[in-house]
Automatic annotation (TrEMBL):
<feature type="domain" description="Gfo/Idh/MocA-like oxidoreductase N-terminal">
    <location>
        <begin position="7"/>
        <end position="125"/>
    </location>
</feature>
<dbReference type="InterPro" id="IPR000683">
    <property type="entry name" value="Gfo/Idh/MocA-like_OxRdtase_N"/>
</dbReference>
<dbReference type="InterPro" id="IPR055170">
    <property type="entry name" value="GFO_IDH_MocA-like_dom"/>
</dbReference>
<protein>
    <recommendedName>
        <fullName>Inositol 2-dehydrogenase</fullName>
    </recommendedName>
</protein>
<dbReference type="Pfam" id="PF01408">
    <property type="entry name" value="GFO_IDH_MocA"/>
</dbReference>
<dbReference type="InterPro" id="IPR036291">
    <property type="entry name" value="NAD(P)-bd_dom_sf"/>
</dbReference>
<feature type="domain" description="GFO/IDH/MocA-like oxidoreductase">
    <location>
        <begin position="133"/>
        <end position="252"/>
    </location>
</feature>
<dbReference type="InterPro" id="IPR051450">
    <property type="entry name" value="Gfo/Idh/MocA_Oxidoreductases"/>
</dbReference>
<dbReference type="GO" id="GO:0000166">
    <property type="term" value="F:nucleotide binding"/>
</dbReference>
<dbReference type="Pfam" id="PF22725">
    <property type="entry name" value="GFO_IDH_MocA_C3"/>
</dbReference>
Length: 303
């Protein structure tokens, strides 16, 4: 970090998400985009030219030549560990696109590298910046819903996703991370103590993938949660479905991503009250990513 308090950052991976990261970093008042890096040299050059920074094809070369404070890694999860290793060993803080890795072993190794090299590692989940999920978490913390009894979270998409990935990563790691993170946030400070999963594989067998998975999680305070993941919607149908329901002893919260809404129901002396919240709490995915990246920069520890 220079004397002006600006975080000098680079982006590794110049695809769709890398471009988003680069654009957002360039807009932040407390960060400066110094360089971008991609094995696809043409992609790196195009993004560097558009964002007025330097382009690199090799991570090691970029780390050696540039004075960086942190690196945003937005390559495919298949290459997360390979990208994290040199950056962590160089002592640079990391903002890592979700999911953290394609399997548990690689995730644990990434965490080990961060701890061993004493760097800050932030995985780029975005639901905590979604107004609907934020409001629900705040309502739970205030006690508006009473004591949480159960949670149900669902995320479904067409099998176009599994065709594209073709077994490179599971539903849990690719899209389930959103709902598992939300579930853990809603349940705080309770922790899961038991989990059971049941999957079905018929439609997506040719693509080395599952169709749907139901996950049941029990927490140490008695909360029961169910997360349903599906990659089997017909292409050209709904395309994407996501919802979250939290039921408490005094009320309930229901998020429907499709209709862009959040409803809070509360038991009162006069009966059931319902608040349907829309304007003022919803933001685009880009806005959520902006808040995530801003948070990373604000929490950067001076050394």
């Amino acid at each position: 970090m220079n004397n002006s308090g600006v975080l000098r950052m680079a982006v590794v991976g110049c695809g769709y998400f890398g471009e988003k990261h680069a654009d957002i970093i360039g807009q932040l008042s407390n960060a400066e985009l110094v360089a971008v890096c991609d094995k696809n040299w043409e992609a790196a050059k195009r993004l560097a030219q558009r964002t007025s920074c330097k382009a690199y094809e090799d991570i090691e070369e970029m780390l050696a030549k540039e004075q960086l404070d942190a690196v945003s890694i937005a390559v495919s999860e298949t290459f997360h560990l390979d990208a994290v290793r040199p950056v962590a060993k160089a002592g640079k803080h990391i903002l890592l696109e979700k999911p953290i890795a394609r399997n548990t072993e690689e995730a644990l190794e990434i965490v080990r590298l961060a701890e061993e090299n004493q760097i800050r590692l932030m995985v780029g989940h975005v639901l905590k910046w979604d107004g609907r999920y934020q409001y629900t978490a705040e309502a739970i913390a205030r006690g508006d819903l009473g004591e949480v009894i159960s949670m149900y979270l669902k995320r479904s998409s067409t099998n176009g996703t599994v065709k594209r990935l073709h077994g490179k990563i599971s539903m849990f790691h690719y899209m389930g991370v959103h709902d598992f993170e939300a579930m853990l946030t809603f349940a705080e400070p309770a922790r899961p103590v038991k989990a059971y999963a049941q999957w079905v594989g018929k439609k997506n067998v040719p693509y080395n993938g599952k169709d749907t998975v139901f996950n049941t999680i029990t927490f140490d305070n008695g909360i029961v949660a169910c997360i349903q993941l599906c990659w089997a919607l017909p292409e050209g149908s709904l395309d994407f479905v996501a919802c979250a329901e939290v039921v408490g002893t005094k009320g309930a919260s229901y998020i429907d991503v499709k209709d862009q809404g959040l409803s809070i129901y509360r038991e009162e002396a006069s009966g059931i009250s319902r608040a349907h919240l829309l304007a003022g709490i919803l933001r685009t995915c880009t806005w959520q990513a902006e808040r995530r990246n801003q948070s990373f920069c604000e929490k950067y520890p001076e050394r």
